[in-house]
Amino acid sequence: MTKIYNDPAEFKNEVIDGFALAYPDYVARVPGASGFIRSGGPRAGKVSLVIGGGSGHYPSYSGVTGVGFADGAVLGDVFTSPSAEQTYRVARAAHGGAGLILAFGNYAGDRLNFAAAADRLRAEGIDVRIVYVTDDIASAPAPEVDERRGIAGTFTVYKIGGAAAERGDDLDTVERIMRAANARTFSFGVAFAGCTFPGQSSPLFAVAERTMDFGLGIHGEPGVRSDTWMPAAKIANALVEPLLAERPEGAHRAAVLLNGLGATKYEELFLLWNNVRPLLAAAGVEPVMPEVGELVTSLDMAGCSLSITWLDDELEELWQAPAHTPAFRRGSVRTATFQRYVASDETALAGTAEQATPESERAAAVVREALRAMTAVVAEHEDELGRIDAVAGDGDHGSGMVRGLRAAQSAAEAARGGVQTVLVAAAGAFGDRAGGTSGVLWSLFLRTIGESLGNAEPVDPARLARAVGRGAAAIKDLGGAELGDKTMLDALFPFVDALDTYLAAGSALDRSWAAAARSAVEAAAATADLVPKVGRARPLAERSIGSPDAGATSMGLILTAVGDALARHCG
Amino acid sequence: MTKIYNDPAEFKNEVIDGFALAYPDYVARVPGASGFIRSGGPRAGKVSLVIGGGSGHYPSYSGVTGVGFADGAVLGDVFTSPSAEQTYRVARAAHGGAGLILAFGNYAGDRLNFAAAADRLRAEGIDVRIVYVTDDIASAPAPEVDERRGIAGTFTVYKIGGAAAERGDDLDTVERIMRAANARTFSFGVAFAGCTFPGQSSPLFAVAERTMDFGLGIHGEPGVRSDTWMPAAKIANALVEPLLAERPEGAHRAAVLLNGLGATKYEELFLLWNNVRPLLAAAGVEPVMPEVGELVTSLDMAGCSLSITWLDDELEELWQAPAHTPAFRRGSVRTATFQRYVASDETALAGTAEQATPESERAAAVVREALRAMTAVVAEHEDELGRIDAVAGDGDHGSGMVRGLRAAQSAAEAARGGVQTVLVAAAGAFGDRAGGTSGVLWSLFLRTIGESLGNAEPVDPARLARAVGRGAAAIKDLGGAELGDKTMLDALFPFVDALDTYLAAGSALDRSWAAAARSAVEAAAATADLVPKVGRARPLAERSIGSPDAGATSMGLILTAVGDALARHCG
After folding, report:
1. For chain A, what percent of residues have pLDDT higher than 90?
2. Using the 8-state DSSP alphabet, how is residue B144 labeled?
3. Among A141, A401, A476, B284, which residue carries the largest CB count within 10 Å?
């Protein structure tokens, strides 16, 4: 939905005004017209490329006005062809004396308005050529290519034409090249949700829940067929297959665009590319400077399209040429002169550890058992930990800890050796998978305990208590938190102190640990009264008063579970 | 919502794989790590800038890895800090021997993980500096700047730091410059709707209908205060005012970003810029190479943020320096050497017309009356025409015709002169406001009739019929449609034929016109049986069978209304 506007009826005009104010270094508004030319005005003796269409497709068309691309862009109302009058004015202002190309996507309204403008310009003695783009394979079968709509393939055709004009090609040549580029450009798209007009509250068309439309238009035209939702791998196939069916004989290098329509995330586009690219490779297609992003949008439509322009040597050079526009810039800086990066020897990253003694190997079995108990207890409380974390954080503490502990447990099961080897392996896996604050601190905690215990000496209660204390100190050093800052340390420090006290009083390890764990759980509950001081936005920190700290809570749960495991082992 | 994925648990990994496949000319994946370095590997003797954070913010951080920007980027899970292990691996691969800057937004998880990675790198003898960005003014008051989160201002700080490293500054200098840039960077944002995690169906947080949250985080953290929806002009004020409150003394040139969070349309950003820019100008702030677009997103969150980096000479040079990365490129092509475009003389665009006779001026009054009747009848049927058009088109026929006719009517009322002058004025206004196919064809129709009638001779029935016939022929010539192609001509041609017939049989103009209009209405209804052949996607065209053509329908309505006006005038 459109949220930012003043008067919906003035939406297009305010957008155009704002664009002019944003990029005066690139474009100049044509007086009295809804359109732009390059800020420097027309270059005498150069063919001028004027593109246009309805508003709502940014960066098409104003966003690609500049050196190496379009000379002028004319914009109609949202999804509506610009008028002949507007087109005439922009084209006249863009004309540098060497003729004009008027280019647009193949829609009835655009064809008529641009043709009417061309008539007026020709009446003034200007040589004008019309090129309309017909890349949408969904809109008509191949033998009726002239009936096909123009969608995201317009980007490539205009880019190539703009580059030809920029290097000084004459009008006949630019026209010929653009027609050749269009004839070799094919697009196919998919939509998940329709777009909404400024000032309206419901979309132009709806896509039913868990379905998707193939062959959408970029003006809110619904797709030509619906299908049930499918995973990215199948979407990739559905897009690639019909495009390859129209591949010209012998073509193997291609400019490829994976174009987002507005509301589809960049991350989704890259994920889809990960499924598209191997299909192209399997078919012997080599993408040349592909672009994955938003090039021709359709307001806030959710969906994307795949465009392929089959290159020959002439088109490839023009596709690769530099451009300098508000929304698309391609420099002449090339990285090909650098050597490609070669991976360093992975083994250098592995740590070293002393040979494990049989005692340490037996202790490692207890570590594995403890990790199983830790994983089980946190998984059981995952949702609760998430809810506690969501009060002032992002609510992922439970899921992060479960992810980390599962990875740690797997790594510990797989690792062969003593306590240090097993704990360091678990620590690495934990940090890698859990992420976030908990990931790094718990990883450090486990690693420090492991390195403190080593692989050689037996694990006695005093050495274990000292190792846990060192782990706590390492967390404090790295994290910078103090007791009372509402972190996991508010449970861990009381535990360490209590464990020392009980052991010094002569209690057995399992009983001492269990008693100390109870102290930790109480201390964790008491963090509800505290205000966090480290690393949280102030208003959110204040919001957390009355709720315990998620990290302290999981620490209490884990220490208790480890105590139970020790009791089972010792008992 | 996230629509494109295979297994939600593998979302991040597939995104990273896809990014590597999309931009191998720019970046190389670091083996065994969720991160990238430049494709050429580290440049020996150059300071390396490594940036990172959670996934879900593209183009941050991988998208700005390249010449003039970052040397490496490390990515965690969605909205989760990368692990120390991952960070260590990427930074080690990016290091060119002259030291490392590790830079990230100020979040507890990132601070810990990057610090732990720095410890390991330093243990290997690498000089490492940490720079975290604190631009979000909503997250803590000014005296506690170190508690502030990093949001879109990270972009500017990294860009400036990357440019300093690129030109060969040493580690001390790059660190100093980045700290200076951070100290002069301030951001404030607004959200309209929360974002949704891959694999989940509801957003991380919800913004109530017709409300907006100020001071949002970019990780799904809710805003620090809510407000009711306000127009763009007020949003602009709400964003600019608190940023100006922290303006350093004497600062007036600034790098300004208006950053979209994902689902907000580019058009909305430009509209907002149209409201922001004058506020900055009024405060004496000059934006230098501002960027309006998506630079630091938050999955599909709807909203935006405004960032200001107050420049001094050193920072300005670095902000303007070239960059060459997958998502952000800034060339050294400058347009300043061109003369700024100067508007051509507007008067040259006006047409010429002969002096009007008193007869023609009287006839012009009838034209004005006819235009009023046309406007009234189409306004009355606007919704119906929209519904008919929506069957196979974009449903805007009614609204476009009403917009055009209202403009035509105003222009006709304002124009002084004969029939030609009034009709040509109406034609221009119609084409300008109606847009689309109808806009250009109706504009041509009215203009042709006017030019055929002229300003001098009296308007007799035969001349009027001939003028209307010429108008119809002009539509056919420009539009390329034939009778039976399901267009307005299917009503207009029968009208022209019938009018000739009735006039030739000796009927009065008003009676002849009314009878011919009835033929037009019948013919329009009969278009329901036709299949359109011109300018429509084949599957959509087929969908239109059984529904009349909207253009023919409005033509029938208009001809009837004009007949009524003539009857009133003649009677």
Report:
1. 67
2. G
3. A401
**Helix/strand/coil (H/E/C) assignment for every residue in A139-156:** CCCHHHHHHCCCCCHHHH
Which chain A residue has the Cα nearest residue B42? Answer: A341
Closest CA to A493 of A509, A508, A479: A479
Residues in chain B with CB shorter than 8 Å from the CB of A437 are: 81, 108-109, 112
Q: Does B338 touch chain A (CB under 8 A)?
A: yes
Q: Could you tell me the end-to-end alpha-carbon distance of chain A, in angstroms, rounded to an integer?
A: 64
For residues B278 and B294, what is the distance between their CA atoms, to the nearest angstrom? 22
Measure the CA angle with vertex B288, ends B282 and B293; round to 5°. 95
DSSP A106-133: S-HHHHHHHHHHHHHHHHTT--EEEEEE
A10/chain B closest Cα distance in angstroms: 10
Specify the 3-state DSSP secondary structure of A98: coil
Q: Which two tokens stand for residue B478?
A: 């420009």
- Chain B, window 44-103: residues with a beta carbon less than 8 angstroms from a chain A beta carbon: 54-56, 58-59, 63, 66-68, 76-86, 89, 92-93
What pLDDT is attached to residue B372? Answer: 96
Q: Residue B178: pLDDT above 60?
A: yes
* Composition of chain B by helix, strand, coil, percent to 5: 50, 15, 35
Overall residue count recorded for chain B in this entry: 571
Peptide linkage before B290 cis (omega within 30 of 0): no
Query: Residues 528-547, chain B: which have Cβ within 8 Å of A?
Result: 534-540
Roughly what angle, to the nearest 10 degrees, separates helices A550-570 and A382-390?
A: 160
Q: Is A210 on the interface with B (CB under 8 A)?
A: no
pLDDT tens digits for range B482-492? 898 899 999 99
- Report all structural domains of chain A as residue ranges with CATH numbers, in order of start: 12-133 (3.40.50.10440), 185-322 (3.30.1180.20), 352-570 (1.25.40.340)
Give me the residues of A, 4-33, that contact B with CB < 8 A: 4-6, 11, 14-19, 21-23, 25-26, 28, 30-32
DSSP-derived letter for residue B138 is: T
Q: In angstroms, rounded to a whole number, what is the distance separating the alpha carbons of residues A409 and A413?
A: 6
Q: Does A61 sit behind a cis peptide bond, omega within 30 degrees of 0 on the bond before it?
A: yes
| DSSP H or E run through B558 | helix B550-570
Note the pLDDT tens digit of each residue in B16-40.
Answer: 999 999 999 899 999 888 999 999 8
Q: Whose CA is closest to A204, among A310, A322, A67, A302?
A: A302
| Contact call for residues B341 and B81 (beta carbons, < 8 A) | no
Confidence check: pLDDT of A352 > 70: no
ipTM of the complex: 0.77
List, in order, residues 6 or more apart from A250 with CB less than 8 Å away: none
Give the residue from A323, A50, A63 showing the smallest Cα distance to A167.
A323
For residue B460, what is the DSSP state? Answer: -
Class of residue A42 by CB neighbours under 10 A (exposed 0-12, middle 13-18, buried 19+) = buried
CA distance B563 to B517: 7
The 10s digit of each residue's pLDDT in A11-38 is: 888 999 999 999 998 999 998 889 999 9
> A128-133 and B329-330 as β-strands: parallel, antiparallel, unpaired?
unpaired
Alpha-carbon distances, residue B41 vs A489, B24, B270 (angstroms): 41, 12, 37
Q: Provide CB contacts within 8 A for B457, sequence distance 6+.
A: B357, B359, B360, B463
The reply to whether A570 touches chain B by the CB within 8 Å rule is: no
> Cβ distance B538 to A139 under 8 Å?
yes
Torsion angle (degrees, nearest 10) of CA B414, B416, B417, B418: 20
Q: What is the token pair recorded at A304?
A: 């994307």
Tell the residue number behind the tokens 């599909």, with chain if given. Answer: B300
Which run of H or of E encompasses A49?
strand A48-55
